[in-house]
Amino acid sequence: MRAYLAFTKKELTEYTRNFKLFLAIALFALLGIMNPLTAKFLPDLLGNFMPKGITILIAEPTNLDSWIQFFKNGTQTGLFIIVILMSGMMAKEYENGTLINMVTKGLPRRTILFSKFTGALFLWTVSYWLCFFITLGYTLYYFPEGRTENLALSVSSLYLFGVLLIAILLLGAVLFKNAYGPLLLTGGFLMILFLWNLFPEAVKWNPLILISRNMDMLQGTLLLEELRNSLLMTGLMISSALVAAVQFFNKTAL
């Protein structure tokens, strides 16, 4: 446990030194501010920029529009940011050969991997929930009369999918020893999830539901009972990716 805590502390220190922590926090905070502002002022902006004589009817924005922006930016931008920042989580150690000294001095390989995973998870957790609470605060300010259902379920689903991608990235980092392999593996994994939807009977097990139907959760048309299969599959995939990463890393020449 002492070795795990020490190596995790090293990871977090590196995130501050290479500005990844600052960059993630800044970008996610910006997204958190933009979500409700876009929902609030986009209709006015569209109206001002439309040519004269052309009128478009836009419904009065509500708190749901703010959360639409949150999930849209979270899946299209937030996850992309984390994947890019974490793609080289082990490439530098392989390149510099620093892992050899650690392992020869008795540091268990699984400790290295779990510390890497913990550091990446910390970065994702802090950034994501900061974005959420900023969005929540501004949404309550601009749309005080708005009501939402299952908000915790919808935002937790997106967060869990981010954890899954981090686990896949860690597996890719072990397999390819560079920053590009994890990106390719993650891209291939996402492609498989999209192809998964071609089989109607298996859709309910697809983790992709966690980031594609958040508004259905928020509006109460998709309940926790209907998500159990995809949540279970996501948990199994996270565990399998971590176990596979440990197994491959134990057999990998450093």
Give a concise summary.
The protein has 254 residues and is an all-alpha fold. 77% of the residues lie in helices and 0% in strands.
Topology:
Elements: H1 2-17, H2 20-49, H3 63-86, H4 91-96, H5 98-104, H6 109-142, H7 151-176, H8 180-196, H9 209-212, H10 214-218, H11 224-250
Helix pairs in contact: 1-6, 2-3, 2-6, 3-6, 3-7, 6-7, 6-11, 7-8, 7-11
How would you describe this protein?
The chain has 254 residues and is mainly α. It has eleven helices and no strands. The chain has helices spanning 2-17, 20-49, 63-86, 91-96, 98-104, 109-142, 151-176, 180-196, 209-212, 214-218, 224-250. The protein is globular. The two termini are 23 Å apart. The relative contact order is 0.14.
State the helix count: 11
Provide the structure class. Answer: mainly alpha
What gyration radius follows from the Cα positions, in whole Å?
21 Å
Summed up, the domain count is 1
Average pLDDT figure = 89
Features:
ABC-2 type transport system permease protein, single chain, 254 residues, mainly alpha, membrane, transmembrane helix, transmembrane, ABC-type transporter activity, globular
